[in-house]
Amino acid sequence: MSAAAGGSLAEALEPLYRNYLRRLDEMVARLPEGAALTERTTRQDGQLALGEHGLPLRFDVADARDGHTWEVHGAHPDEPLARELRVGRLEVRVEPGNWEELPVVCAFAEAPPPAEVEELASLLRCFVLFGTHGAFAAHRRDRGTKGADRWTGRAHGLHVELRGNELWAILDLGTCPPEGVEALCNALSGYSEERAPIAFVRIGGAAQQTG
What we know:
Layout: H1 9-29, E1 36-38, E2 43-44, E3 47-48, E4 61-63, E5 69-70, E6 84-87, E7 90-94, E8 102-108, H2 114-132, E9 157-163, E10 166-172, H3 178-194, E11 198-203
Parallel strand pairs: 7-11
Antiparallel strand pairs: 1-4, 2-3, 4-5, 6-7, 8-10, 8-11, 9-10
């Protein structure tokens, strides 16, 4: 399936996104009315608490009564609407996965130069930084669900590491809509044209971290 002819990458990822939002709504529903704090940042000694790569530490749900926090984790991978697409000149392979811990893997035919690996890692960090500040929030869904407007459309974080000829970014996309991931893949396509060629990008699958 091509992004142009058979549907977009954002559409293919929609089930993963909507199932994550459903899990968030279910988590909030377990708390008393007005007790849930959603996608809030955290401060320590008056300073904004930062997570990996200096991004603001943002939790899915917190209890306003005692500060206890929760992070959503799907019990099983969610199935995408399409498995093979093209975004720009880039082949994108989509596997079942969970929105809250979604691998985006850039696979190379051979090991790229270290400087280009770092440049690509920087591109991935910048994407999440943009998403953290709501760059794609305008694409939030009007779901008609009570309290749906509590979700901000922001990304939460990432972990990046090189595994052989693959650069892995494990994304905690938060409530950032799938259009953000499609924009990322367009940027990866542009990178691949001028830097170390990316053989394909794989989205989804197991998200085990090794480093």
